[in-house]
Write a structure and sequence with these properties.
The protein contains five helices and no strands. By secondary structure, the chain is an all-alpha fold. α1 packs across α2 and α1 packs parallel to α4.
């Protein structure tokens, strides 16, 4: 038997993984993984704000790469 996280659990995993820059990216990733009723599962300001914060804290790319290069140069 294979365990599959709920839509909400997987959304948090994706937001914390560093692969998603925005909540929209999280929703697209969920859709591509075959999750349904995404809008219903991620509805509400509290959930959206929490996912947004996790995306911003963990996103790897863009400015994060530039900051890493600056730290290496120091």
């Amino acid at each position: 038997m294979t365990f599959r996280p709920t839509t909400l659990e997987r959304a948090y995993q994706l937001a914390e993984s560093g692969a998603c820059r925005t909540v929209g990216d999280v929703k697209q990733a969920l859709q591509s993984e075959g999750y349904d009723r995404i809008q219903d599962s991620l509805y509400g300001g509290t959930i959206t704000a929490a996912l947004r914060k996790r995306c911003q804290e963990n996103y790897v790319g863009g400015l994060g790469d530039a900051a890493a290069v600056e730290e290496e140069d120091a």
